[in-house]
């Protein structure tokens, strides 16, 4: 197979948080080329995930691409023509990955993932830029986070670069048809996942696993009239806890949250704002990170605040991280952007903060804006929070697109994703070669 062309080169980004770095080091040390003693005393080499071994079988029954804005597009059920699969076993390591027609998997009913939640996933997007190019956004970070997640649930390790090459290959195969050039700004949702397929029913580390990647049609979810409405979680439920796995994108975090989410939707809310503990510590909004812009109680300084990652009860979002980095470089007190645009500089704070503090800021007129940040919802202004039966209305700007800081972050990120960025962060858009 011809080598896969990717620009820029797939270097590991240096800005990895402590949390992720530790997870990765651990996982890589386990997935390093290893030699195992087999039962007859011979030494067997276990194969690594290797994208250069990819086999390709193209579909003979191509699917049709849903119209923009159609119900089909919004259904989140339509996948593109192809998918990636790679099998792993403890004995042999990774088999050659394949690019094949999209379709059902075949699993034994005793498979580990169907009983013990040996499953994890990632969420990314492939964008059609205004310059006609296909781009991924900081995909190296997703591939590394996937490795961290697999490690948390005893699924096999792999070199994140190899996963990225497979994702790029799938995007280069299906991107041109499913994101035609006359649809600038459109995107596909990329879902890599890994499951334990070991069909021994006992509770144990899976000895077999399957990695797969698909591309799904998705309608934009960031333009919600009136902004996102959040219902704060009750004190009888939490999403994640210290010592748990809230920091990993494992399926076990999401199923149990759906009862609360369903109740919230019945009451007219979009998502749960997950609180933790007696102090009502803010963690996340659904499967997005949560930010507020407020004036500090002590001195009225403008601050952007989000939960820190220290207790491992919050997911280290790529959107969260990028938002923090952009705000720190572009809107600090010395930033040229802030000065040029006449925006008041903001201090960027990652710390433990509580719903009680948000309520107090709201009461005292210090709460300026709030937004949710994640790949699926992108940057979505939050207009309403209900907490213990009390309602907080938050400004989402005259046009409903978010207050000026929310709107600014959204524009910066969107420009990078769609090839119109300038300056810091522009290198975060990775172009997928379609030739
Ligand atoms: C995926 C996810 C996010 C957002 O992460 P991104 O990398 O920005 O998409 C935030 N919180 C949770 C719980 C998530 O699952």
TrEMBL record:
Cofactor(s) this protein requires: pyridoxal 5'-phosphate
GO cellular component: mitochondrion
Chain segments annotated as transmembrane: none
Residues in coiled coil: none
Cross-referenced InterPro entries: Aminotrans_IV, Aminotrans_IV_CS, Aminotransferase-like, B_amino_transII, BCAT-like_C, BCAT-like_N
N6-(pyridoxal phosphate)lysine sites (modified residues): 249
Catalytic activity annotation: L-valine + 2-oxoglutarate = 3-methyl-2-oxobutanoate + L-glutamate; L-leucine + 2-oxoglutarate = 4-methyl-2-oxopentanoate + L-glutamate; L-isoleucine + 2-oxoglutarate = (S)-3-methyl-2-oxopentanoate + L-glutamate
Gene Ontology molecular function: any one: branched-chain-amino-acid transaminase activity
EC numbers: 2.6.1.42
Keywords annotated in UniProt: Amino-acid biosynthesis, Aminotransferase, Branched-chain amino acid biosynthesis, Pyridoxal phosphate, Transferase
Domain of life: Eukaryota
One example of a Gene Ontology biological process annotation: L-valine biosynthetic process
Family: Belongs to the class-IV pyridoxal-phosphate-dependent aminotransferase family.
Protein name: Branched-chain-amino-acid aminotransferase
């Amino acid at each position: 197979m011809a080598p896969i062309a990717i620009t820029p080169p797939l270097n590991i980004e240096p800005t990895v948080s402590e949390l992720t770095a530790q997870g990765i080091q651990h996982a890589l040390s386990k997935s390093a080329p290893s030699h195992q003693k087999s039962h007859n005393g011979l030494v067997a080499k276990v194969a690594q995930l290797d994208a250069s071994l990819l086999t390709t079988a193209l579909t003979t029954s191509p699917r049709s691409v849903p119209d923009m804005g159609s119900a089909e597009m919004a259904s989140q059920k339509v996948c593109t023509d192809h998918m990636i699969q790679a099998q792993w076993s403890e004995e042999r390591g990774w088999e050659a990955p394949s690019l094949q027609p999209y379709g059902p998997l075949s699993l034994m009913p005793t498979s580990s993932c169907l009983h013990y939640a040996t499953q994890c996933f990632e969420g990314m997007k492939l964008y059609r830029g205004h310059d006609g190019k296909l781009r991924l956004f900081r995909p190296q970070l997703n591939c590394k986070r996937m490795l961290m997640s697999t490690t948390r649930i005893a699924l096999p390790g792999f070199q994140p670069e190899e996963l990225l090459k497979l994702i790029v290959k799938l995007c280069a195969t299906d991107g041109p048809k499913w994101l035609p050039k006359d649809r600038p700004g459109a995107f596909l949702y990329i879902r890599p996942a890994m499951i334990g397929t070991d069909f021994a029913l006992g509770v144990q580390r899976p000895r077999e696993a399957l990695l797969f990647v698909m591309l799904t049609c998705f309608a934009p979810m960031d333009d919600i009239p009136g902004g996102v409405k959040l219902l704060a979680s009750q004190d009888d439920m939490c999403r994640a806890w210290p010592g748990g796995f809230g920091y990993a994108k494992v399926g076990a975090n999401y199923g149990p949250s759906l009862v609360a989410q369903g109740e919230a939707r019945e009451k007219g809310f979009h998502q749960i704002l997950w609180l933790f503990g007696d102090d009502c510590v803010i963690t996340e909004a659904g499967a997005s990170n949560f930010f507020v812009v407020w004036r500090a109680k002590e001195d009225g300084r403008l601050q952007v605040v989000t939960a820190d990652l220290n207790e491992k009860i919050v997911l280290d979002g790529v959107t969260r991280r990028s938002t923090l980095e952009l705000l720190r470089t572009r809107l600090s007190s010395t930033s040229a952007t802030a000065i040029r645009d006449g925006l008041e500089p903001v201090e960027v704070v990652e710390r433990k903060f509580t719903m009680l503090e948000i309520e107090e800021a709201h009461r005292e007129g210090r709460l300026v804006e709030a937004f949710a940040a994640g790949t699926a919802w992108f940057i979505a202004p939050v207009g309403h929070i209900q907490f213990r039966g009390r309602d907080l209305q938050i400004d989402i700007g005259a046009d409903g697109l978010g207050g000026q800081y929310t709107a600014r972050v959204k524009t910066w990120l969107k420009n990078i994703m769609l090839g119109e960025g300038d300056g810091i962060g522009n290198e975060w858009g990775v172009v997928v070669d379609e030739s």
